[in-house]
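Service request form, structural biology core

Requester: graduate student, group of Dr. S.
Request type: structure prediction, single chain
Budget code: on file
Notes: please return the result as structure tokens.

Sequence provided:
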Amino acid sequence: MTPDLTSSPRYRRRRDRRLVALGAAAAMTAATALAGVLLATTEASAGTLSGTFYRDPTSNVNRWLAANPNDSRAGLIGQRIGSQPQAVWFANYNQSTIQSQVSSYVTAANNANQVPVLVPYMLPNRDCGGASAGGAPTIAAYRTWLDSFAAGLGTRTAVVILEPDSLALQTCLSATEKSERNSALSYAVTKFKQVNPSVKVYLDAGHSAWNSPADTASRLQAAGVANAAGFYSNASNYRWTADEVNFGRNVLNALGNGNLHQVVDTSRNGKGPLGSEWCDPAGRGTGQAPTTNTGEATVDAYIWIKLPGEADGCAAGAGQFVPDLAYSLAQNGIVTSPPPSPSTVPSPSVSPSRPPSPSASPSPSASPSTPPSPSPSASQGTGSCSVSYRVDSQWNNGFVASVVITNRGPAISSWTLTWTYAGNQAVTNAWNATVTASGANVTARNATHNGSIATNGTASFGFQASYSGTNTNPTAFKLNNVTCS
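Core staff response, request fulfilled:
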């Protein structure tokens, strides 16, 4: 969450995350009047947390809902996403304001008698330079930032989801950098507890299809988890809740510390993962509603860490709210409160040979965040329509493209755009349109909200695709069977 980052999200994880820049203190305090929309949960029946989590009325989704009350997607998005409590990410490096930002959010939650969930996301070299790159300039600056962050935590119960990807994603760090990071994370845990003994700090455990439980436990120990409340998993990813709970048990067994517990990100795992795809995969759904009533002794809470509808970095910049993503997640969601027992959640087996899917960023060789120079756009049209096709980012076996249709003829109420690839391209995910393919022939049909195009009006959509060989732009488009040329 302000840089548009998660999400990372391979939140991803990756996590996106999602990166949120908080508004002014006055806006946060005034927003508490809307807290009654929050779905109620009972006191904890497991773990060490109790109460309900705070719903931030100034989140990206709720800002969009307030600005678009008549949008055809708003009702479902509001019911299944906007109404739910979600974490707030602190990802903008601003030493002079971080304390007041944290304090404003915590105060709003305290005034509603609910539990705030905060995500500090400011470590140097975060996301290993991926889509959510950034953070404090140095470890020393980070510690100073942490001091100010801690000063805003107040005295009541607060949940801190400390630095997504910080432990699971360390491939870019030298041994010295790992040591510095572990020391900084341990410092954060100690500092937060020192300032507010009621705070619950959880460290990064990746997810069940990433690092092994033994490896994860070793990383957690090195970062001072013994002084924390425990760890979190599945941040910005899509793994089944039951798999995460089982993974957490194994990590806890490896840690051998009965005082530690787990929290799980259930924001987008209602349909489970789409293979190992981490970046805005199609057909996913919101998962179990945030709650402390988990029915599992080792699990303190199910929390929405990644904000549903905020991109992982493929549908849009990581952390950017995309209404079509939110609508799709809501359509496919299983939001329930309280959630079912983990034992009743579908849990397909996870093959140990499946390649890991980091919660933050993909490896440099496969990351759309570090592409070579994008292909030039292909634009054509002198008749009743024109089409602009642009490859926005490209890596060694995939790309993200955007398409803009301009209608030069009479107004239309729905549209179908077709084209043919000359190479071996295959669309894997799309937004603002339904895109299907038969061999090299591709068909894109409008979404509900963008079917009407006035004369000289436009409609746009985007997609993610794979390719082999040369990624050649298509050269012929047809809009409703009329050639745009």
